[in-house]
Amino acid sequence: MNELKKGWKMESKLQSLSWQRVFLLVLHYFLGYGFLYRQIGVFLTLANDPYAIMILPSIQLCIYLFTLAITIWLAYPLLKKGFIYFKAHLRYNLLLVLVLICATYFANLILSILIGILTGMETTQNQQAIEASSRFIPLLTLFSTCFFAPIVEECVFRGGVFTKLRSKTSFLLASLISSLLFGNIHFINAFFTLDFSDLPFLLVYSGIGMVLAYGYEKSNTIFVPILLHFLNNLIAVLAMLL
Asked: What is the pLDDT at residue 8?
């Protein structure tokens, strides 16, 4: 714990990517993965089965793998430096992850209970979709939530958006803006269906985003928020599967 306290006092410039790589990361994620690749997936699925109601798992896996590969390629300098720094300060980083995952779990539990009391809602449509997919395609759900999302979303929102905002402004503002963007991607369907009943849970997702940004700020390696994100999602998925 003394090592953790010492680590919190360390001041260092965040590792970051060039503006060009950040721009391509964001464009690839929102335009590519968020829209174009899914439209291609829908087209290919319907060409195979005109009555299909969801993208074929094999096609969805291809979308995940392609998106992941491009993201890793664009974020490679950040991932390379981050891995070296993570290993160099391994004990501190693991202690930081342990403290933050415990804090995240209890904060999420309290916030979810409060939102449930105030709104009568127990879960979000995003969570219900994950629960449904975990029953039909458990391995693909495990891959997408525990490996794809932590790597891709952390490279985009912490390694990209947060670090560039952080270079120009305070931690609070940079983490708030990047976390709100991160929270909103979990409600992307609301903008198409105009059903915003899930929005109170934006507080939960954005809160997670701020914890992830804090982990990056204090560790100076993208692998701390990646590991935090992985553990947070793994706990949620295992709770659904078991």
From this structure: 44
The answer on pLDDT for 165 being more than 50 is yes
Q: Determine, yes or no, domain membership for 32.
A: no
49-77 mean pLDDT: 95
Domain that holds residue 209: 75-241
Print the SS3 string covering the chain.
Answer: CHHHHHHHCCCCCCCCCCHHHHHHHHHHHHHHHHHHHHHHHHHHHHHHCCCCCCCCHHHHHHHHHHHHHHHHHHCHHHHHHHHHHHHHCHHHHHHHHHHHHHHHHHHHHHHHHHHHHHHCCCCCHHHHHHHHHHHHCHHHHHHHHHHHHHHHHHHHHHHHHHHHHHCCCCHHHHHHHHHHHHHHHHHCCHHHHCCCCCHHHHHHHHHHHHHHHHHHHHHCCCHHHHHHHHHHHHHHHHHHHC
Lowest mean pLDDT: which of 18-22, 175-179, 188-192?
188-192
User: Is 29 part of a structural domain of the chain?
Assistant: no
Domain count, the chain: 1
Asked if residue 37 is part of any domain, the answer here is no
